[in-house]
User: Which sequence fits this backbone?
């Protein structure tokens, strides 16, 4: 059966070997070039933003609020706002995500219900971010009565990050060898004791990696916070979870499309884009490094 | 060793009896007898697949009982019935009775956690936790709620001494347990089980993953421990069973074919299949 | 005490699992319940009528999503035309040809690309790509469907590359060895054996890329010009469903017809992406096989 398919597949054309060889070479290079093209695109984007943004960034830019109708000054409130909102995102998504992963991997009997939960996770991951924005506006802002606020935006972003946290945590839990669980059970540990004393300590680096990846995603999202709490400009920093806030991605959005003097504030937009890019890349890098160290440790059996 | 020898004699009498009257009669005679571990007409299923067929056996206090048989014969399944580790596998089902110290451990009100504290287990592959040597041994007492450092230290020392590991590790109790050699890790796992103060120790091919010299040490240890604990050991190595056990049970395709003193099983097997298995291996 | 803790923890974790389902159902419910007043007030017809989305019009507001659907379709299709061949080719290279060190270097870079926030890509499209397109095609503005398609394609690339590479790697080695043993070259093996065998996985990667493209909001919002007129070509300005919601979401009056109409758009968007993702999911569950 397999051989038949293969014969059909190759359909043995009568080419000389050398001819095929050059074909192959050209083909390989064509594929290689597509990949290089992808990297080239990324390179251009990064180069453009770094080269034009780097000049703007100085101590004042990072530590001062915008001044003179946002045509001068820095982006400090946006940095703080993004920091605060991601904190709330973590507080929402991590316990829930890790909890769900523990349920799926440690407690549940695999069956219809777990399949349904996993399907929900995958579908939640595919929901467009603006739809999360609509949901957050209807539920957290209106029904729960939070108003546009850090907490409403943080919860909305938390929902959006939840699939990342669940998936990463489950993967981390799965790498914990069964022998550890058995060893613990055999000593008379209850299931929660097994999870708390043996499984979680082992899985925490992996869970942390997933958390950081989710955080990086949340920090860069704009659509979900458009109507749940992000503000154009605020004269002071948020003082409670019910305050509105400025955020880096939203700031970049308004500085590049909504501001009354767009070309004048272009450098500020570039600076904001660079800071956002650096922030997200650092978070991703941290996650990748953490994962690498973690995998090495797992490979060593420690 | 004295008590073991005494029991062996009783066992021998019983086996001769079995030879005369057959298993059925023997079952009746042990029906209400108290013993350490007793399984009666035990059937066990993984989903639709039956793994154990009508297993009836009793194990007396102290001494070593070995379970032998080809792989997949159900000996490990039987072992895991005794501390209900099979509960962790979804879809398993059990018929019949298993009594430990006279109590049916599959009765609905059984406290599985307590059962496992009384019936310790050592696994095929050494599985120390990725913690320090001290924390590994102290694990059981700690989940039991013991926090007192002095008491813990004492338990750790006694358990390690009991597992003949103390002299090798007493100066590095805070080093990771995974830094130990395979044989040391397995003795650590034995010490970890001892720290919970069990009365029965189940061992599931404890030496199959370690080298011959380490195996030798563990066999010596098992012989020592059987003065204080009832040990049930699964092994695929018949010489090992012959070396260390007082009684031996032969499993084949989920059935307990024969059970008797080790010397009888190996020198004078009653069942043709036991004989085939033993002679086949010895060549 | 232990027994109580044990029971409490089990309940907590089960509730966490249940919450995930409830969130998905909750999103669907909120979208439905908030679009129902709009649908009952106007009926379904006006949302697909030939006129425009103009909820702010004095006197007779109109709520047609049709042009936005066209916009979404154009941007998505354009993105896939660019991203699927590029992504699959790059994945084939990574999986079949690249040396280990190339993989070591390139794969994290692809991950970095996946991490670039959509608003940053949108910014790049706005300040770099738009002027370039305007100059090339002699347009007043480069804020066109083309611009959106290219950038959304870039956004979808990492998804496609990663998943297609997984699918290709999952093809059993025996297939390849059998082909090579029959005298096939590596090139023939890749195109005639490996890629066809990974076909369902590759299609799934394209579907998931498509899901991302349909739902992508900030990039298209920033680079497509957002005109609600019916687009004639890729050089026209378009507004997509997602961008349409994003534009109005900030200052819509709560519980107005306009508000409910936005949720109708959201519901539509949700259902489309849900179906696309579901299809991808089904394809991924299939084992690799040789398609004839």
Assistant:
């Amino acid at each position: 059966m397999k051989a038949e398919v293969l014969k059909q597949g190759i359909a043995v054309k009568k080419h000389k070997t050398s001819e095929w060889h050059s074909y192959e070479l050209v083909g390989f290079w064509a594929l290689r070039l597509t990949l290089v093209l992808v990297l080239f695109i990324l390179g251009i984007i990064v180069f453009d933003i770094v080269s034009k943004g780097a000049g703007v960034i100085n101590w004042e830019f990072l530590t001062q609020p915008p001044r003179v109708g946002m045509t001068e000054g820095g982006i400090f409130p946006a940095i703080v706002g993004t920091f605060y909102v991601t904190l709330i995102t973590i507080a929402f998504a991590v316990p829930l995500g890790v909890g769900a992963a523990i349920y799926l991997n440690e407690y549940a009997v695999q069956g219809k219900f777990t399949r349904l939960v996993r399907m929900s996770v995958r579908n939640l991951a595919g929901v467009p971010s603006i739809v999360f924005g609509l949901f957050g506006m209807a539920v957290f802002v209106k029904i729960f009565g939070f108003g546009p606020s850090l907490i409403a935006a943080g919860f909305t972003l938390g929902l959006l990050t939840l699939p990342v946290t669940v998936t990463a945590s489950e993967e981390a839990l799965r790498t914990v060898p069964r022998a550890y669980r058995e060893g613990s059970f055999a000593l008379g540990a209850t299931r929660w004791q097994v999870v708390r004393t043996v499984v979680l300590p082992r899985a925490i680096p992996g869970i942390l990696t997933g958390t950081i990846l989710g955080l990086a995603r949340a920090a860069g999202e704009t659509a979900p916070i458009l109507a749940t709490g992000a503000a154009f400009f605020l004269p002071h920093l948020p003082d409670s979870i019910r305050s509105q806030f400025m955020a880096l991605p939203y700031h970049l959005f308004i500085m590049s499309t909504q501001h009354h003097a767009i070309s004048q504030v272009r450098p500020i937009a570039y600076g904001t884009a660079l800071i956002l890019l650096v922030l997200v890349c650092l978070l991703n890098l941290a996650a990748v490094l953490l994962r690498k160290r973690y995998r090495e440790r797992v490979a060593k059996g420690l | 060793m004295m008590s073991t020898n005494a029991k062996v004699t009783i066992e021998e009498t019983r086996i001769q009896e079995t030879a005369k009257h057959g298993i059925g009669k023997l079952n009746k005679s042990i029906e209400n007898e108290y013993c350490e571990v007793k399984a009666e007409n035990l059937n066990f299923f993984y989903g639709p697949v039956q793994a154990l067929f009508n297993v009836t056996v009793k194990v007396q206090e102290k001494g070593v009982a070995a379970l032998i048989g080809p792989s997949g014969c159900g000996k490990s399944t039987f072992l895991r019935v005794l501390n209900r580790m099979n509960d962790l596998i979804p879809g398993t089902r059990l018929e019949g009775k298993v009594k430990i110290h006279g109590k049916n451990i599959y009765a609905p009100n059984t406290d599985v956690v307590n059962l496992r504290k009384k019936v310790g287990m050592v696994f095929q592959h050494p599985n120390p936790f990725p913690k320090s040597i001290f924390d590994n041994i102290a694990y059981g007492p700690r989940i039991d709620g013991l926090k007192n450092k002095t008491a813990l230290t004492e338990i750790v020392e006694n358990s390690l001494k009991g597992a003949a590991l103390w002299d090798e590790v007493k100066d590095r109790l805070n080093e990771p347990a995974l830094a130990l050699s395979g044989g040391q890790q397995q003795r650590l796992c034995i010490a970890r089980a001892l720290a919970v103060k069990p009365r029965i120790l189940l061992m599931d091919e404890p030496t199959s993953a370690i080298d011959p010299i380490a195996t030798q040490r563990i066999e010596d240890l098992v012989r020592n421990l059987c003065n204080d604990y009832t040990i049930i050991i699964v092994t695929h190595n018949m010489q090992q069973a012959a070396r260390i056990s007082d009684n031996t049970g032969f499993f084949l395709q989920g059935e307990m074919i024969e059970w008797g003193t080790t010397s009888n099983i190996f020198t004078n097997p009653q069942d043709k299949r036991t004989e085939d298995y033993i002679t086949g291996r010895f060549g | 005490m232990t027994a109580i803790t044990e029971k409490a923890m089990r309940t907590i974790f089960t509730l966490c699992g249940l919450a995930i389902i409830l969130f998905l159902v909750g999103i669907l419910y909120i979208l439905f319940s908030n679009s129902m007043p709009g649908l009952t007030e106007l009926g379904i017809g006006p949302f697909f009528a030939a006129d425009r989305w103009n909820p702010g019009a004095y006197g007779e507001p109109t709520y047609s999503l049709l042009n936005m659907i066209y916009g979404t379709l154009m941007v998505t299709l354009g993105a896939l035309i660019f991203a699927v061949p590029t992504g699959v080719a790059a994945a084939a290279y990574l999986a079949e040809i690249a040396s280990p060190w190339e993989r070591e270097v390139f794969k994290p870079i692809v991950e970095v690309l996946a991490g670039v926030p959509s608003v940053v890509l949108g910014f790049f499209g706005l300040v770099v790509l738009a002027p370039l397109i305007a100059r090339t095609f002699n347009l007043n503005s480069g804020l066109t469907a083309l611009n959106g398609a290219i950038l959304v394609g870039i956004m979808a690339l990492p998804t496609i590359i990663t998943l297609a590479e997984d699918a290709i790697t999952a093809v059993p080695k025996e297939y390849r060895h059998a082909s090579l043993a029959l005298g096939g070259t590596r090139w023939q093996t890749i195109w005639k054996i490996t890629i066809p065998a990974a076909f369902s996985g590759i299609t799934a990667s394209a579907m998931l890329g498509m899901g991302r493209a349909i739902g992508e909001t900030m990039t298209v919002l920033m680079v497509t010009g957002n005109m609600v007129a019916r687009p004639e070509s890729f050089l026209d300005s378009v507004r997509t469903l997602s961008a349409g919601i994003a534009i109005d979401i900030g200052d819509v009056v709560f519980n107005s017809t306009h508000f409910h109409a936005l949720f109708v758009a959201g519901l539509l968007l949700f259902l489309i992406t849900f179906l696309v993702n579901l299809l991808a999911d089904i394809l991924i569950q299939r084992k690799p096989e040789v398609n004839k």
Notes: The domain at 62-285 of chain C is CATH 1.10.3720.10 (MetI-like fold). Residues 288-292 of chain C have pLDDT under 50 and may be disordered. The beta strands of chain C are 53-54, 62-63. The interface with chain B takes residues 2 of chain C (CB under 8 Å).
